[in-house]
């Protein structure tokens, strides 16, 4: 099985499908990530705030997989945007991960009430120059935040990691990203199981037509749209199922039917609004 890659605006590539570890308890993370690596995942998405970077690092170390075959992302937490705090934060993350460099470092949330997201991204530019991260990006940025970052730093983030699933497609942010060469990473790609996505006819009918599970259909929809995804599961069977998504192609009509699940008014959001997280 070959996982496709996406070329980022800085020339580096990222596996389009990975494994996310949000809410994987610290004590279970080494086992879960080891299973994911064993199954064939090579891209792991973690964050300082998840409290499980050490588990990710332990699994990497035990795997024996060459560093250049892995793609590891972590994120700067909201209370560390100011001054030189980002330098200390990435040093701590690298120590926990047992790595000299991450492949991608993200500002986790813009925290607009603190008005320090431009500074945080400017610090990431420095961290990249120091070789501590290969690529840099943002997460949960709205168009207004992206525009300020680009105009004030002159650097376009490689990715924006945003909540994105059929009921909440953030079309304005996605269109802006396409225009500016920013990769879209879809978090909560399966809607975090918070609404009956798998029972919706657009998903269920496509699942029946292709002989796949509904989760696989939703992941296929993301992949065909060009989104980067890293669904989370701690169950070995689902973890493998989520990788087995490259043997079918949704028709234009099936894609359009899933597109139409979007509430369009933002009411399909299952996580926090970026302007409310500070
Ligand atoms: P998700 O949409 O991947 O949902 C995960 C849930 O879906 C699991 O707990 C499980 O209940 C279910 N599931 C997974 N595979 C399944 C399958 N094959 N069949 C049936 N059910 C299945 O949501 P997520 O974990 O929140 O998002 C994925 C990753 O995105 C996270 O692990 C994390 O790395 C990242 N993330 C980032 C942010 C951010 O602010 N940047 C926020 C949330 C998540």
List the helices and strands and how they pair.
Layout: E1 5-7, E2 13-15, E3 19-20, H1 26-39, E4 43-45, H2 53-63, E5 71-76, H3 85-97, E6 102-107, H4 117-129, E7 133-139, H5 143-153, E8 159-163, H6 171-180, E9 183-187, H7 201-210, H8 214-225, E10 228-229, H9 236-241, H10 252-259
Helix pairs in contact: 1-2, 2-3, 4-5, 7-8
The site of nicotinamide-adenine-dinucleotide (NAD) has 23 residues, from helix 9.
Topology-level CATH name of the domain at 5-190: TIM Barrel
End-to-end span in angstroms? 41 Å
Helix-residue proportion:
25-40%
Q: What is the string of SSEs from the N terminus onward?
A: EEEHEHEHEHEHEHEHHEHH
| Total number of strands | 10
Q: So, the CATH homologous superfamily of the domain at 5-190?
A: NADP-dependent oxidoreductase domain
Q: Bin the strand percentage.
A: 15-25%
Please work out how many helical segments DSSP would assign: 10
Tell me, briefly, the overall form: globular
Average pLDDT score: 98
Please state how the strands of the largest beta sheet are arranged side by side. Answer: 3-4-5-6-7-8-9-10
Radius of gyration based on Cα positions: 18 Å
Largest sheet: 8 strands, parallel
Give the bound compounds. nicotinamide-adenine-dinucleotide
**Which structural class fits the helix and strand makeup?**
alpha/beta
CATH architecture of the domain at 5-190: Alpha-Beta Barrel
Q: Note poorly predicted spans.
A: none
